[in-house]
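During the reporting period the student researcher (J.K.) took over the structure-prediction task from the postdoctoral fellow and processed the backlog of single-chain submissions. One of the processed entries is reproduced below for the supervisory committee.
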Amino acid sequence: MAFNVRKDQASRAVIVHAVLLSYTLIALYPVFLIVINAFKSRKGIFREPMALPTSKTFSLSGFEKVLDKADFGTYFFNSMSVTIITIVVVLLLAAMAAWALSEYKFPFNTALAIYLAIGIMVPIRLGTVSILSLMVDLGLVNTLTSLVLVYVAQGLPLAIFILTEFMHQIPKDLKEAARCDGVGEFKIFFAVILPLVRPAVATVAVFTMIPIWNDLWFPLILAPGNGKQTITLGVQQFIGQYVTDWNAVLASLSLAIIPILILYLIFSRQLIRGLTSGAVK
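J.K. obtained the following structure tokens:
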């Protein structure tokens, strides 16, 4: 009987791992194609798009065009500036709001939490016309500030929701012990609470960064001017109505992947802990 149970568990584990491995391969294969074709000549891309670069097809012309002719450094700096500032602001504001919602009971506490949850369900792009009109009135069109404000508003609802769930799991005795020792609320928050929710913070940071880094919609509408373009918008200069420079496009996309990989390598352990802790109570 025990042997049959172990056999069933082993079979389920094999099936689960096979499904996960298949999904991983499907998700990574487009990235793999982008990277290998970025190191090919134009003929190599169209003749053998699935093959690895060879001595005949290998070419760095795409990277040369991106780094020499395009203002890629400016695009990269703009994307990094907007992303980093947004992540810092979102994490700080969301952590404070989550601490208030989870720790203190006040009128309309539940209503406020529901209101913030609505922000997760309603796409911010539905308000594009109103957002553009507001930025025009504030004189923020063609500035990175407009992108930061929009992305902060976009990222806060989900960030508050995730951090609130984590903070609910922190034992009350720990916080009461700190208060009994005369520790102030701000010190409890920064010295006790934030270190305990680091996995959740890493999860929120990744979930906040990826949509910002990949976004084309708001940079195209709010900051399309020269010197203010992000990577995703800057790549569009290589895409024409009749001719597309695929070498440069694929090289740009390959370079744009690097920050996401670095972020994942830095926060991978905390991210996995955050996802598993949020799934199992």
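The committee noted the following: Residues 86 and 148 are 6 Å apart (CA to CA).
J.K. will present the remaining backlog at the next meeting.
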